[in-house]
Amino acid sequence: MSRPAPGNRRSTKSEYIETDTGNKISRKAHIEGKPNIMLGGRTVIMAGVTMRGDLQRKQERPADGSESAAADKVSSTAITIGRGTIISTNTTIRPPMRSSRGSGPTFYPLRIGDNVFVGPGSHISALSVSSNVHVGAGCVLAPFSIVKEHCRILPGTVVPPAMVVPPGSVVAGKPGRVVGEVGEGWGQGGGGEGEEWVEGGDLRALVRKVR
Amino acid sequence: MAARPPTTKRTTTTSTSLPAAGPPCTIDPTAVIADKAQLTGSHPVTIAEHVVLHPYARIRAEGGSVTIGPYCIVSEGAVVGLPEGQQGDVVLERWVNVESGAEVLAKQVGEGTEVGIQARIWEGATVGRFCRLTPTEVVGAGEEVGDFTVVFGDGRRRVDKTIVESEEVRNARVKGMEKQVEALRKLVPDGKAKWIS
């Protein structure tokens, strides 16, 4: 098989780079500290997204034994993102920082679950965002907030620092408050072939459309 | 699966291919300027000791000079300075924390102030000492925000009495800021060499 001509190759260059596990990462995303970022597969990182994987937990103890060296390796992952998660344009993902007693301030690893949709222009510094959460456009999840499963964060919400959002809540406002619960059956479906995606449901259909 | 085209000839679009001529800079040797931070415009930029500029932070000296005081942190996506077509200088005093996505066009921001995530301070505004702008809050053009004010909840303001009365609290905040700078120094690689001519 012959190689395509350089000109040809250039014209086929798409916006997204697709990895073996089906992650789609925009060429226009700003990703720092790539070795410290884990993507679960079928995850979409759109253009203009800034990810600060370089802000990892500082390694305190020197790696004296093989066991502690392995533990250090695990803890150095700064950003973990689950399967089928979509991070829309111009979102910033930055691990939160806090001073712990005794030592200086350190960054804490940030976790995002499966099938999470993050709207454009948001900022995520939360400690964890669980699966099937829908974050609207222009939201700020302040440092050390925790968002549990099946939540809806309405557009423009500022989730205050260290707030814990219980499962199935609807959050809105500045500062963000729980304004209600998602209805029965919210986020059901969306997984099958040919089905439309639904908020809080399986986002595979939407991920497939991104190219 | 088809083999990928060789990566060697691919030209990256993310690399900072900036023109060599940046603004005239005075950068203290103890400052940390990330490689991907940007300094634009033609007016002078002064960066004092122990400043941290994160990657993708932007100092925009297009409408006037920008002065950044000691122990300031400017995060990713934040912009400090006026754009082309507007005139005026921007001064950040000591210990100012400009969070990610914030935009500071203010005349002056007092010491110990925290400009929250995606907050905006428009041109000509002045912000006092030890203020806090919570995320996404806006201070309008020419407005004045007094010392120790907290701006929150779509423009509501109140004075943080704890910090007014207690010097200890103020010192704790200053110390926290200095410790943060020390921690970031280990994580953000410095690339200020290209801005010093």
Automatic annotation (TrEMBL), chain A:
Protein localization: Cytoplasm, Cytoskeleton
Keywords: Cytoplasm, Cytoskeleton
Protein's recorded name: Dynactin subunit 5
Similarity section: Belongs to the dynactin subunits 5/6 family. Dynactin subunit 5 subfamily.
Keyword Cytoplasm carried by entry: yes
InterPro entries tied to this protein: DCTN5 (IPR047125), Trimer_LpxA-like_sf (IPR011004)
Biological source species: Cladosporium halotolerans
Gene Ontology terms: cellular component: dynactin complex
Membrane-spanning ranges: none
Basic and acidic residues bias locations: 55-64
Pfam families, sorted: DCTN5
Region (Disordered): 1-22, 55-74
Main location: cytoplasm
UniProtKB/TrEMBL annotation, chain B:
GO terms for biological process, alphabetical: mitotic spindle organization
Keywords assigned: Cytoplasm, Cytoskeleton
Subcellular localization, as worded in the UniProt entry: Cytoplasm, Cytoskeleton
Domain of life: Eukaryota
Start and end residues of each stretch annotated as Disordered: 1-23
GO molecular function: dynein complex binding
Keyword Glycosyltransferase on entry: no
Gene Ontology CC terms, in alphabetical order: dynactin complex
InterPro entries (UniProt xref): DCTN6, Trimer_LpxA-like_sf
SUPFAM superfamilies found in the cross-reference section: Trimeric LpxA-like enzymes (SSF51161)
Gene3D superfamilies: Hexapeptide repeat proteins
Protein family (similarity comment): Belongs to the dynactin subunits 5/6 family. Dynactin subunit 6 subfamily.
Function recorded in the entry: Part of the dynactin complex that activates the molecular motor dynein for ultra-processive transport along microtubules.
Name of the protein in question: Dynactin subunit 6
Organism of origin: Cladosporium halotolerans
